Amino acid sequence: MKIHNTMTRKKEEFVPLAPGEIRMYVCGVTVYDLSHIGHARSAIVFDVIRRYLAFAGHQVTFVKNFTDVDDRIIQRAQTGGVPTSEVSERYIEAYRADMEALGVLAPDVEPKATEHVPQMLQLIERLLTSGVAYVLEGDVYFEVARFPGYGKLSGKNLDELLAGARVEVDERKRDPRDFALWKSAKPGEPSWDSPWGPGRPGWHIECSAMAMQYLGESFDIHGGGEDLIFPHHECEIAQSEAVTGRPFARYWIHNGFVNMGAEKMSKSLGNTVTIRDLARRHDPEALRLYLIGTHYRAPVEWTEEGVTDSARALERLRDLVHGEKELEADPTSERGTLPEQVSAFAARFQGAMEDDFNTPQALAAIFDLASALYTYRDQMLQGKRAAEPFRDGIAALTAHAGALGLLQGPGLRREGWGFIPRTADGSLRARPTPHHVFAAPPVDAPAGWWTPTRARIEALVGQRDEARGRREWARADEIRAELSAMGARIEDTPVGTRWKWKSL
Fold first, then answer.
1. CA proximity to 43, closest of 21, 60, 17, 65
2. Over the stretch 122-175, which tens digit does the pLDDT of each residue have?
3. pLDDT confidence of 322, banded at 50, 70, 90?
4. CA distance 14 to 58
5. CA angle 41-44-46, nearest 5°?
6. Which domains does the chain have, with CATH numbers?
7. How far apart are CA 263 and CA 141, in angstroms?
8. How are strands ordered across the β-sheet holding 199-201?
9. pTM for this one?
10. Mean pLDDT to the nearest integer, 27-54
């Protein structure tokens, strides 16, 4: 496996510190507002990386934090006349609900900054003892000039770092580039006791302290959006490595922005689209498919049309998986070339994902396998192919899609096609009962509604096929309209008619 390491600006062979075990830290959100599609992209990117590493057989420990004390949280609380904890907890719960809607797995550890102040104080004291930090009237600053490696992640020298940096204005500092480790208390703000007086931690010290607490002084992967490279991750490296003398993280992974037109999407620009709003308008798995259709390091140009196209592509996969549930075929039929295609697919998928998590290429492999499975299924329904290779192919498709977080959600359980297959000469295949494939009822169907409604639809589909066989096109169209009014959508295929419930 090769990973593009932001630190070295090149792909490197990935070798975990401990064989078979991967420790991974991803910077979470500052909880002062609802999360937007940019947050969704980062969450989905690292969810896919985590899922694939586990799929590949690694034991993954995944830590993602909440910043629950911050100027913006304090301002929101003061405006609303409520405690800062009320604001932060409100948006923590909102974020968790958004992540569940997107199918993002919960972290193994989800630390909050306010619950780890003692660890931060200990780290600050170590920095003071090491001589790379100083106290200034109740504040504590990291002295950038005393850490020669500062700038190695972003690739900037100390002079360049002055331009465009979020440097806190304080003329008392020894150097404008020095950053706060501890901020002295201000009236009306939350504060904690410290050896330097009451105050609260700076932003950067939080992640260093929490990552060390749960993953150790050196771990495998540190991730986040590319906007965190400087100053946040640069400062994390400085304050961590200044006291340990060890690489803080061995591989740094950063995802690209989501752009709205020509601009980066962000709350400060006022051009955000919330996850909550998107999840109401779109299938969450279609959102995932759209976002991972671009390589994680490249920017994504946000379009509603793109998500709609992804929903259609996702439906094609779901329809195929539904078709495996009750499919019948002659076990003595030829097996065809499908086993070889499935084996080649698995190798292709693995090759893509182990080349810096190339999800576009992995998705291309998935959809190529789906096309082969559709062709094989049509041959199977005509009695030309055995069922077992098809079932194995569906299992491989589902497992590999699951490694990307696809074919996991309620939409897969909600909709399905029903088949009335034909024999090779085009007539309806005789069976004691019509052959149907997992046509599940809508999720809000009332009790007692499903069985008679399905029976009526099946009868109408059969009548329509008979009318088409007699070339009674007007009658076939009437039946199609009646089926549509009942909520069924039909499709004529070379191997028979299939139907499904319209998307709700």
1. 65
2. 999 999 999 999 999 999 999 999 999 999 999 988 777 665 445 556 778 999
3. confident
4. 12
5. 110
6. 2-281 (3.40.50.620), 312-412 (1.20.120.640), 415-504 (no CATH)
7. 34
8. 133-136, 139-142, 179-184, 199-201
9. 0.81
10. 97
